[in-house]
Write a structure and sequence with these properties.
This protein is α/β, with parallel strands linked by helices. It contains 29 helices and 24 strands.
């Protein structure tokens, strides 16, 4: 097990859960704990319980964060990025080859990459990205921007961990809905509490709010309580008093004291404060997970007045110990009612204690997770394979079953299945490797940006470092030649492997010729050649290469590749599906959105003129490069300027660092434009493959018209035939008519 801090004594909600999980693991078999030592833990007490403990000193600070933010991927994850802990985890997993590697917290998910465990599990104490995004709702402008940026970064970290784990546990059904991507196996294991003797009834009208006051949602809750709720309480009940109890209060929080309100700061034990209190408070306006402090108060026999956010995940306790109110005056009224009526407070507290004892014991709430662990371990290979990133898989044989055949289920299940098929295809090729990702799509096609973001996502999920990126115009052979031989070269996928787009295919051929001995992987594409001479030239280059892997994304291309190219051929979904399901960016503004391509890839019938004749006003997605004075235009030009630095400066890692955020920022901006555009339609009709795929991710019913050479039809039949959202037509008129039918069905509902 890997967790943030030594969880004994359990003086916080995170430690309480980690300790409960740790003890459940120890009951299942010999258990080793790897964690940070923050100076408050007692590892010897855990060793006395038979648990092996390996601690690494925790050294938080600006330097730690600055060093960790690039490899960790976000500000909060950087606080826990430590090479020493990573080395301890790798060593213990490699030596012990355990049944289970259990990682607590999404920020520690990179430790799932340690090789040797039969099953890898991630316990999400919160849906972290959604949690940070929720801060923005009540934050001042600068903090709002910072929270939104951190949420976006954390989403990438969280997504990689969710996809890398065999099992993911969350603490509430709502947190399951907030995850940025659905993992292969998900269970809800609630937070719990061990029953304790009830406290004696409180003699005075005292309320208490317990929580780590240095945590932003708790600090915001304390401020809201003191400034907007407490004056109404004192106006109705002048003798009322309240205590804000918790670690690390800021000066602003300490300044809230006064008018019957006390801010204690750190205390050795919260029980005396619960003993004095007639009612406990949970006035949160942001956050996630479930409140262990609510369970603690109820178990002690104290009723709780909470906001909807405060009671999030514990809705079944409303009426059984918990009272909910969100308006400040209503919240104050509920507090006054309980403070002024000791008998009612006592009855409600006892009801809460009975409910916690019945529904929330740790043994009960952790059972779904423990059962899933036992099942997965029983099904896993007896001896997990050791890492071998450089091995070459055998080529598919005629008649061999292909990954992803028979994808079925709802739209969300389809997406999850496609993500797992992608990881299964690439894990033997890439897991743990450094990679160079070539051919950044610095143009207006939103689909290519979605593919790029998916390629980065699969690299992150497999523990790869993207150590080099470039565009076709900024590629230099010497940059890649300097990289270790084990670094794999990834050629950006999507589009077509063939001569439909000569510039990009010539670039691929150049890279293949430049590095005949280095592993090169062509990321998933469709295959189409118009010129037999172009096909022969590509065949000769690939035949001369010693380690070229051609990944295709549909059965038609797979059959062509196996008969045409002398190399390893794999089938995998389009990388855009690694982005996972996405919510619409806004409400639909038109019944049918027609997105029709207007470039030279329209080889058969064109959708654009037919849709226009039907009054749909079709558009293509495309946007010229922004002007230099625009922030995005400035960054693009800065990006190109950095590429022209002399070689000595190019070797200092500057390119890799700048591309890791400029490129991803550009790709995300372009992807968002595409999602915003598609979100305008209640139904989408299109002849672009990636409008088809992104509509699937957005949950929008859509009709795709096949291209002149079968690209869309073949992809749909390979991966999306069972999607309830996706429909394919062979003619433009048929596509428009089907879109109208879907639109009418939506209206009828």
């Amino acid at each position: 097990m890997v967790t943030k801090f030594t969880p004994f004594p359990a003086d916080g909600g995170g430690k309480l859960r980690s300790l409960a999980v740790l003890r459940r693991l120890a009951s299942m078999g010999p258990t080793t704990l790897c964690c940070f030592a923050d100076g408050t833990g007692d590892a010897d007490a855990l060793r006395a319980e038979g648990i092996t403990v390996h601690e690494v000193p925790w050294t938080p600070g600006p330097l730690t964060v600055a060093k960790g933010i690039l490899p960790a991927g976000s500000l909060s994850a950087a606080r826990f990025h430590d090479a020493r802990l990573a080395a301890v985890v790798r060593e213990q997993v490699a030596r012990q080859r355990p049944d289970l590697l259990q990682v607590e917290y999404s920020q520690l998910a990179p430790h799932l990459r340690a090789e040797g465990a039969r099953v890898r599990a991630l316990d999400c104490h919160n849906a972290e990205a959604a949690l940070v995004a929720s801060y923005a709702a009540s934050a001042p402008p600068l903090r709002k921007v910072a929270a939104l940026v951190e949420a976006r970064l954390l989403e990438r970290v969280e997504r990689a961990g969710l996809l890398a784990a065999d099992l993911v546990s969350v603490v509430s059904a709502k947190d399951a809905e907030r995850l940025p991507v659905q993992p292969r196996r998900l269970v809800t294991a609630l937070n719990g509490w061990e029953p304790r003797p009830l406290l004696e009834p409180a003699s005075d009208p005292v309320a208490v709010f317990v929580g780590v006051l240095g945590w932003q949602p708790n600090a915001d809750a304390a401020q809201w309580l003191a400034q907007q709720v407490w004056p109404h309480v004192r106006a109705s009940l002048p003798q009322a008093r309240a205590s804000l109890v918790g670690r690390n209060p800021s000066p602003a929080t300490l300044a809230l004291a006064g008018d019957g309100l006390t801010v204690t700061g750190t205390v050795p034990d919260v029980q005396p404060y619960l003993q004095q209190a007639r009612v406990a408070l949970a006035p949160l306006r942001a956050g996630g997970g479930t409140r262990l402090k609510i369970l603690e108060a109820l178990a002690a026999g104290r009723p709780v007045v909470a906001t909807s956010v405060g009671a999030d995940g514990l809705e079944d306790l409303v009426g059984s110990g918990v009272v909910v109110a969100d308006d400040p005056r209503e919240f104050a009224a509920r507090v006054v009612e309980l403070l002024d009526d000791p008998a009612r407070a006592q009855d409600l507290g006892r009801a809460g204690a009975a409910a916690v004892a019945d529904r929330y014991s740790w043994d009960r709430v952790l059972t779904p997770w423990a059962d899933a662990v036992q099942e997965l371990v029983a099904r896993a290979d007896p001896e997990p394979p050791r890492a071998s990133p450089a091995r070459t898989l055998p080529r598919p044989r005629p008649g061999q079953a292909l990954a992803g055949d028979g994808v079925a289920g709802s739209a969300s299940t389809v997406i999850t299945d496609l993500q797992q098929s992608t990881l299964a295809a690439f894990r033997p090729l890439l897991e743990g490797r450094d990679v160079a990702l070539l051919d950044f799509p610095n143009h207006s096609n939103c689909g290519d940006s979605a593919i790029w973001r998916g390629e980065v996502a699969v690299a992150e999920a497999l523990g790869c470092r993207v150590v080099y990126r470039c565009e076709t115009g900024t590629y230099r052979r010497e940059d890649i030649a300097r990289l270790p031989e084990s670094t794999a070269v990834l050629l950006h996928g999507g589009g077509n492997f063939g001569d439909l787009w000569p510039h990009f295919h010539a670039f691929r051929e150049r890279v293949i010729a430049d590095f005949p001995d280095r592993r090169i992987i062509q990321m998933p594409q469709s295959i189409h050649f118009q010129d037999p001479a172009a096909l022969r030239r590509t065949q000769q280059l690939i035949a001369a290469h010693r380690d070229f892997v051609l990944v295709v994304r549909d059965h038609q291309s797979h059959a062509l590749a196996r008969t045409s190219f002398d190399c390893q051929v794999l089938l995998a979904p389009d990388m855009a599906f690694m982005l996972g399901a996405r919510p619409r960016t806004h409400a639909a503004t038109q019944p049918i959105l027609a997105l029709a391509r207007t470039d030279h890839e329209t080889l058969g019938e064109a959708l654009d003129p037919v849709a226009r004749a039907e009054g749909l006003n079709p558009v293509d997605w495309g946007r010229p490069r922004p002007p230099a004075h625009h922030p995005e235009g400035f960054l693009i030009r800065l990006d190109l300027g950095l590429d022209r630095l002399p070689p000595p400066l190019r070797t200092l890692g500057l390119l890799e660092r700048r591309q890791g955020w400029i490129y991803e920022w550009q790709a995300e901006k372009q992807l968002q434009r595409g999602l915003e555009h598609l979100s305008r339609g209640e139904v989408v009709v299109t002849d672009r493959l990636h409008a088809h795929l992104l509509a699937e991710l957005l949950g929008i019913p859509h009709v795709a018209m096949d291209s002149g050479y079968g690209k869309i039809r073949s992809y749909h039949e390979t991966w999306l035939a069972d999607s309830p959202l996706a429909h394919v037509e062979t003619t433009a008129k048929g596509a428009v008519e089907k879109a109208r039918q879907l639109s009418e069905e939506l209206v009828a509902r």
